[in-house]
Amino acid sequence: MDKTAEPSRVEPPANAASPTAAVTGAANAPSTPAQRWLARLSFGLAGLAIVILLVFGELKSLTMFAVGLVAVVVIVAAAYFFLSRRGIVRWLSLGAFVLVPIAVIVIFAIGNVLWVAIVSAVAWLLAGTTARKALTSSRTDWRMPEYPAQPPARHPYLIMNPKSGGGKVEKFDLKRKAEALGAEVFLFGGDGPVDVAAVARQAVADGADLLGVAGGDGTQALVAGIAAEHGLPFVVISAGTRNHFALDLGLDREDPAASLGALADGVELRVDLGVINGQTFVNNASFGAYAEIVETPAYRGDKVGTTLNTLPDLLQGQRGARLAAQADGTRIEAPQALLVANNPYGTGDIAGLGRRARLDGGVLGVVSVAVNSAGQAVGLLRGSRAEGLTVLTTKKIEITADAAQIPVGIDGEAVLLSTPVTCTITPGALRVWVPRDRPGIPAPKPQKNWARLRQLAGVRREPAEVAA
Questions:
Q1: What is the DSSP letter of 58?
Q2: What phi and psi values does residue 131 have, to the nearest 5 degrees?
Q3: CATH number for the domain harbouring residue 230
Q4: What's the domain count of the chain?
Q5: What's the chain's average pLDDT?
Q6: Which letter does DSSP use for residue 131 in this model?
Q7: Strand 364-369 to strand 279-281: parallel, antiparallel, or no bridges (unpaired)?
Q8: Residue at 78 is within a domain
Q9: DSSP string for 252-273
């Protein structure tokens, strides 16, 4: 697509690489000398960790491994029982969770192998770090393409919530700074609720050619949907509490005023929007445990206490609707927690939830978890291969339940939706203007690929060498 195409057209360019394609391409990209040496260093450090155990730990190394493995299993199982039980079982589990690591340290110290365990663990940690560095490609096609922010907005209209983020609108003098840039500002006022959608639609009717929000992700999503509906550019001002959308757009969350730079010197990103039963979302929609907890009236006043009091019933199936989901050819039965994201989150933890390097992949990211026993909780250590954990991408997912309505957390806001609930993705629906000068986002962490690491280290020849 020509970068100077009509602004109202927001179809993503055909030659834009998707996040998945970028990762796949990175795996097959030619290596650099630095990558090859890092791969070799990674294998060397892994070997050093084993040698340290065998040489200095001697026969005790097997005992160390067994004790460590048992400790990990006990700690994870204790965490599960702490969250899923009440009364004496919960507090005994908490005691085990705290005391088992201490016991392991004492056992290693008595056996005079504590330093061996520490040095070996450090070597393993460094091996993992260098492996990640080796697998990180120098390619930059994981970044979203930028387009000129044209034509300049003549009547920008910004909606600001002075209570959001603990008063960031006033703290950073956002209203005055926005008006100095020619924007009209609507400031929430009074104690009553504000119909943000009505305010945004009236602004469009009055001639606004750009909409923006200084507030939480829920308000951002609501106004973003209206901007997309009318083909107008949208500005995100990171004045909320968490600002997940702003984070994945590469904005400065510590200085919301910097987001206003999009009005003076900005570029355009064409971003997907998630849609759930006709309502837009910019981050994710959550079903199951999280949504049930957030919907509880006491949650706002006592988040930790409400969570601990509610989780046992949820994890044991004594509360909440029984859910099921269908995504393409995959059927998900009875998930305790289900997350549907506007583009998949990156790798980096047990469930694959991190940051979204790109928001223009045209797919939903789905993560579901079902843990019905301590054994399944321990099994989560296997990552994406764990029983009860499903990670996939899709363009559409339908969630059904044995209840007419279910609570759903949409961009952090709890709502009740009628079942079935359908989530879809609208590619390139939103024209987001961001400052040209912004922090950006770090390169996504590469997936573990031992075959590629062996290639880089010279254990296996690279495809280019085989072809030659």
A1: T
A2: -65, -45
A3: 3.40.50.10330
A4: 3
A5: 85
A6: H
A7: unpaired
A8: yes
A9: -SS-GGGGGHHHHSEEEEEEEE
